[in-house]
Every structure is written in structure tokens, then in C-alpha cells.
Write a structure and sequence with these properties.
- With 390 residues, the protein is of the alpha+beta class.
- It folds into 3 domains: 87 residues, no CATH class; 158 residues, Jelly Rolls; 128 residues, Immunoglobulin-like (Sandwich), CATH 2.60.40.
- It is 17% helix and 41% strand.
- It has 5 helices and 29 strands.
- Helix 2 packs across helix 3.
- It is globular and about 75 Å long.
- The N and C termini lie far apart (60 Å).
Amino acid sequence: MKKEDLIAYIDGQLSAEETAAVEQELYRNPELAEEVAALCRQRYLLDSILAQDGATAPPRRFRTFSTAIALAASLVAVATCAFLYLQHLAPFPEPPTVTATVRAVHGRVLLRRGAFSQRTLRPKMSVGPNDILASAADGYAILDCSTRPGTTITVLPQTRIILLDEQEGAIARLEGNTVEVAASRQAADNPLRLHTRDARIEVLGTRFAVTANSGGTKLNTIQGRVRITHAATGQSAEVVAGEFAEAGYDGTLTTGEAEPCIVSFTLIDADTDSPIARHDPLVDGATVDLAALAGRRITVRANTDPLIVRGVRWEARRTDGNGQDSEPHVTHTQNEQFFPYGLTSNIDIDYTPWAPVTGSYEISATPYVRRAGQEVVGPPARINIKVVSR
């Protein structure tokens, strides 16, 4: 999009149709929206300069960006600070209609509403059509769908999703990475729909995960049955629990049976619910020094493939360091059925701490899915770690 068009948009010189087209592009392109915000900050500075001492504004041609930006360049930093400060003080606009409310947030998730309004996502906030959610590498969010009672959307790290008005045909459009959807039973004539660039996903009541990237869209069905339709070819397939489908950028649609496995383990700070860098991944033979963690409480997370499975069964037993049970015998078991898959239960995305005493432990995790009413178990993964407090 040409810079002249953006300036005309800011100056209000476009027709209603042209304005709508620009705003639609701003919703889709955060980099372009940032460019427009920068131009607005320059306009704010220019108007401030022109308004000094009650001066009358010069003719319009002197206020165009081609001449005015050079005049304002030396004070752009000041204007930026002022713009951001005023934006912070200004009330955040409410959505015209509420699509979902935020149940829980961990890490950094940004909410963009309109071209220029942006806030950090917080619990109990309302989100609506055309709102954009973007999560950082440590960001998670759980949304309760207001238009679909009992349905939740979990936004995973490094994910970008745009909420839609369902009159447009879908509840949201996934533009990057992964969301998990737990859908309540829907009316047969009013299925829940989720769109990506490559696929149209339709469900009556189920639990599934969708990942979208440059190569295409991958659907993993955890419970129930989901229909996926390739956006380019119209080819469709029904994907039942324990199966996956991939809608490729090249127009292909393939299906198969999910084979769950544990990829790695991560030591988690249960106070911040974040990975502990020195133990990500947590490897076999690692020594975890509780004293070096400054009193932080811990737990362990299993990282699975596919990213979302039906569940992970855990066992952590204290050993004598040679694989034999210690005395007294200590074993912790857990069947975790919701992402993220922690050794200890989690409420939404808040981990419950694991409180190991010093000693050696064998930790095992076994992923599973359900297929055709039967449980399909992946291979267990095991590591031995030593917990000390030096």
C-alpha cells in the first residue's frame, strides 16, 4: 500500500469504500498499522507546533506530510512519548459486541483493537469482532466464548488470531501457530467454524487443535469429529478423534492417524509458570539445585507431538540413584488431560507446584489419544534427575 494512500486515510480524504479497504488491511497487517501509528504521531507533533501561541493554521498545502515531516523531524521522539502517554490515558474502546471474555492469561499477550488501540490482555477483559490477539513466546490465554456457551479457545505461545463476527461465517481466523478449542455441543444447523488461510474447520461439539504456518494448516482432533475443507480446492474430510489432517499450501489435503510421543521435558517455575532456562530441556541425568533457584517452586512439563493430545500419564518415584525404589517409597502419579501437560495438575494455565525432597527421581510420562473409542498409547519417555539443595 502506498504511503500517499495512508496519508490520505489519516487526512480523511478517502471515500467510505477506500477507508474500509485500508482499515481491513490494517487489521491484517500489524507492521502497516505501526507505520500508520508513526504517521499519526508525526501529525500530532505538527499540529502541536502549528497551534503554539494560538497561531492560525497555514493553508492546507503547507500541512501535507511532504513538507511538514521535515519540519517536525527533530521533535519526533518527544511527540512519540506524548502520543503514547495520551493513548495510555485514553479509555480503551469497548468492542461493539462481545465474542468472548478472558478467563486467564499467562505471560505477554497483546490485544489490538482498531488501527491504533493496543493493550496487554488481562483476565475478565471482553473481546469482540476484529480484535487481534498476539501472544509472545511465553504467552497463553484462555477465552470463554460468549456466543458459544461452554466453548473455550486456548491461545498458545507465538500465536496470532483474529476474532470474527459469526455472521461472517466463523468465530475466528487463525493467522499463525496454534489454538486449542474445546467446543460444547452445537446445534446441527449452527456449527462452530474456525478459518485459516488454507482451511475451513467445522465442528458440532468436540475438542481439537489447529496449527497454521507457511506450509499449511494441521488439524488434530482430540475428541469428537471435525470436518476440514481446503480453502483453495474445496476438498473436505472428516477427522475423528485420534486422527489428523493437513491442508497444504500446495492444495493437498492429507489425513492420517496420530501417533503421540513425548519430544522433551521442561523444568517449570511454578510461581511464574515459565520455563527455567537452564533446564529447558530437562535432560536425563540433570541435577536440579533448589538453592540455586532462590526458593522458587518447581514442576515439570512434557512437550508432546502432536502438540495437543488426549492426555499424559505421569509417574515420579524417588529412587536410590540406581533405579531402585528408595525407602520410604515415594511415588507421585498424575493423569493430565489439558495442555500444558504438567507433572502436577494445573488450573487453566497456572501450574500446581511439585515439592520434591532432595534425592534421586525417575520421571516417566506416557502420552495417549483416543481412536475409534479405544485408547492409543504412545511410548513412555523417562528421565532420571537428582534434586539437591547446596
